[in-house]
Predict the structure.
Amino acid sequence: MPALSSTMTEGKIVSWIKSEGEKLQKGESVVVVESDKADMDVETFYDGYLAAIMVEDGGVAAVGSAIALLAETEEEIPEAKSKASGSTGKTVIDQVPSPQSEKKTLIDQPPVVQSETLIDKANSSPAVSVSSEHPASEGGKRVVATPYAKKLAKELKVELGSITGSGPMGRIVAKDVEEAASSSSSSSSAAPVPVISQAKPATSSFASQASVVGGTSAVFTTMQGAVSRNMMESLSVPAFRVGYTITTDALDALYKKIKSKGVTMTALVAKATALALVKHPVVNASCKDGKSFTYNNNINIAVAVAMDGGLITPVLQDADKIDIYTLSRKWKELVDKARAKLLQPQEYSTGTFTLSNLGMFGVDRFDAILPPGTGAIMAVGASQPTVIATEDGRIGVKSQMQVNVTADHRIIYGADLASFLQTLAKLIEDPKDLTL
């Protein structure tokens, strides 16, 4: 039941990298903001002083509201603090103007976006600059860590230099710090170190909640809030479902043959789906206004990934045009970035068709909720040995999987899905085209 990003209305301040009164130089990271799917480092586009922080760590700010003020000189800091206490929050990060200068904003904005916002809507150009690495030094060793990981390491008294990062390019993420802190506490007699929850590889998004006490209330995380909004929006679409049984013996054999080359089953299914969509473009279409629909130029396969606190759908763009080996490498990169909360909006909000695979958990069949803005989503069940009647009338055993497609009935009809699923089954049951 994946959720694509909806229009963003608010963001959470994960941590301030700079403190009030600190001098800032153009290009420095100032604050880490949590959008509905990722943490983003915000850089200043101007020199100055961080005069007043208006939304502290952990606070939530609406899109377009003020979170801090920037002063050009130290003398202007008191004026900024005064302005902050009476601010109406019309701008995002405002700069106190000097008599000789015009008013500027701390966060620059692409010219195509008129309003100046710190936390931009997910479906427009990013309003912030995101840095993929944050070098630091500990004991002469170069350390690359997210700002949140650095902050967490300081709170938990963990040396970053002793940690091996699990993020992209060895980057240390919060999960690594938590694990190091937990390991340290278990090997000493000191008081237990508190562990802060962070996105991790999840066999189930609810697995970490097994010890929750009954009756406990929990406020939605930013990601859960986005999922909730998307699911409510889905209720307005007249959807229907069509199931199909596909024999997977040939696909399983191909997977075993090329698995050592880094190919994943997810990439194989995504590739087969993309090639089937080439022949059935209406299943890749989308209706957003209820009055017309669009045949999408690209076939972008979004695949649901479970995370603690929600779901995210990294997108394999142009999956029909990319060879299976490149597609598999791309998928691994996307999953690593998703778990480190480093995906950019275009990497999770551009899907034209969605896959939700619970088969990896042993689920044999299920239905998926249609993500807003897309025409169809396919639920993929587990491949299981099944006793069947063969073509020559004998009894045999073949591996089969159940797939169920949920589609927007305003633009896709039963015959469309039946034809699409027949094509998909042929590609999976005779998968030679998947490696071309």
In short: DSSP finds eight helices and 19 strands in the chain. Helices lie at 77-85, 147-156, 174-186, 222-234, 249-258, 265-279, 324-339, 414-429. Residues 1-6, 88-137, 188-207 have pLDDT under 50 and may be disordered.
